[in-house]
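Problem 12. The chain below contains 348 residues. Write out its predicted structure in token notation.
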Amino acid sequence: MEAFLHRTMRLDKAEMSIHRQILCHRYIGVEPNSWQMKMSGFVHSVIYQMPPQTFTFRFGQLRTKPPGAAGARGAKELPSRSRRATGELIASFPAMLQACLNGGLQKTAHSAVPVSPDELARDAAAVRAAGANELHIHARTAEGAETLDPAAVADALLAIRAAVPGMPVGLGTGAWIPPSGRLRHEHIRSWSTKPDYASVNLNEPDALEVIDILFSQGVGVEAGLWDQKDARRFVEYVDFKKCLRVLIEMIHESPASAVAYARRILEMLRHCKCALPILLHGQGNTVWVCVELARSEGLDTRVGLEDGLTLPTGEIAPNNASLVSAALHILDPIRSAAETKSRSAASP
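Solution.
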């Protein structure tokens, strides 16, 4: 782990700041390699149970900043089994925040919905500046319809990656997207330019097939669970090693119902010892209560025009970046203030 962080990331050996997401991201090389975690004094489950923080390695002792220390946000001492005399963990920043830019929305729903590759690229840059870590998009045809066509997917991904190099970007693969159902499998198999990951709804009949196709293509899988039935199917039939993360997607109208159902799904995942990262998000009326629950549970979350058009105040959001800024303020007020100050300094 020390060699990986020092040589690959080129961070200062005396003190290295690391996002929790790096520690558990299979594509960066830690998650599948248990020996690396053992060498660094980590236990697989400990990484995923860490609070939403940034960790600073100092080669000496392994600990977190005590509550009340600058930037600690009440960080707790790590379990003694994860201690090691090779590093010190001091921490302060949130779990991963994903921006879902468009979904299937048209500009008739909101004028700021990005549809074309150029619009997606501009929004990607704006949400990154606002504090988003990753992206979720739905590729569109020239007419604005959702599509998984390889050419349209390539146009969108290449434009985004040119605007925000290194920012992970994922696609929706909903069964409703033309040509729909299993007919869309050939489109996915034919992607020449591939997303970093793609979401799969476990309530769709061909979900297990789509997971296998994505896995064979080297595309990360976000397993989307809408309810406990989806969670049971995921637990019983999906190989966790094929997935990047779990999405708990609350589509309920009632915030109270969304929280209750989310907690039940979380309990099911914990009971079966699923150690994958979990991203919790809501839709419509449940967006902000799910952001709050994600913060309290130390989970990843997402916001964007796809999920909801309103800010926590109830006002219509002007754009995706404003939604990301609002979420960041809830997740980490300290980082939010720093991002705002940085943007103000950069403005003419």
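Discussion. The chain is about 40% helix and 15% strand. Students who got a different answer should revisit the alignment rule from Section 12.3.
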